[in-house]
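Worked problem 6 (solution included).
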Amino acid sequence: MTGPRTSRYARDVAVVAFAQSDHLRRTDELSEVEMVMPVLHEVLAATGLKAGEIGFTCSGSSDYLAGRAFSFTMTLDGVGAWPPISESHVEMDGAWALYEAWVKIQTGEADTALVYSYGKSSPGSLRDVLTRQLDPYYLAPLWPDAVALAALQAQALIDAGETDESALAAIAARNRADAAANPHAQLRGAVPQGDYEVRPLRTGDCPPVGDGAAAVVLAAGDLARQLCERPAWITGIDHRIEAHGPGLRDLTDSPSTRIAAQHAGVFDAPVDTAELHAPFSSQEVVLRKALGLGATDSDTGTQTGSGSGTEAGSGTVAVNPSGGALAANPMMAAGLIRIGEAAARIHRGASDRAVAHATSGPCLQQNLVAVLEGDPR
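Solution. The predicted structure is:
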């Protein structure tokens, strides 16, 4: 078998299919199962596989969003748990469910995996729910929400001279302009910056709150080529975590992203696509620096120079051509969507080597980086 160009693992594993829902502000008429089922049917149909032919199933979601314990067991009705299946769940973004599924395939216990994630943020106050991620003794009782913490990060970047409010507005505008070509995005095209949510972040610098779901299918080796004309091989994947307390780290940098990128092999060769999970415009500044993507041309979103001594790209790198999390940010699915969007570009020949990033927690606390490559053309 001719494997991917830079595989470093025991088994070659690829994303062979990706599907996502339309991301909407509210889906009151749909249960979580009803929201997930069409996505699962679509991703399986793309491969021709039936649920019973999948070797391992892993999901990512949050009981805090659903407001009830073990809510993920409900959505298994959409998968079909009979006859019995090999199944697992992570209380994280679906990107981490993909990591678990990838490990399962690496062990040889499965040749295929179905990974899905979803989040319905509309029923409650997401800003309040996300405070539960914080230290329960010192920070959580103060109820600092995700927007307030992101504003601290944005202000630190401005004070360090790494950005300003007009540059942040340009990042937001570029992402949503790119989302005009994405039929699943919640916000597309020109969106007013609006008033300050928490200074210096305006409404336009913040992600939309909404509901959505996504799914991918993974397959190993020659089976991947049978299921997909041009598989997106996962040639590197790694995830790292920062200190839990935001006050214990430099908010203008993301060493965990940089370390994960190094271990995933991002800097081994140029990339042509970067799907970054940056829910706030200021976080794209941090991630570009950590990944060596340099500054941005606000009109095109392409890399115009390196921001660090280690280069992830040379020439043109399309950053968030899907519109990114500023166009659609379904909690617990937005990170998996970054991997799926990068893989989809490889599937259709628009990319040869892409980096995908997912984050969880306040101010880019946890970061996962994956490198995806297509077979040489």
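Discussion: The two ends are 16 Å apart (CA to CA).
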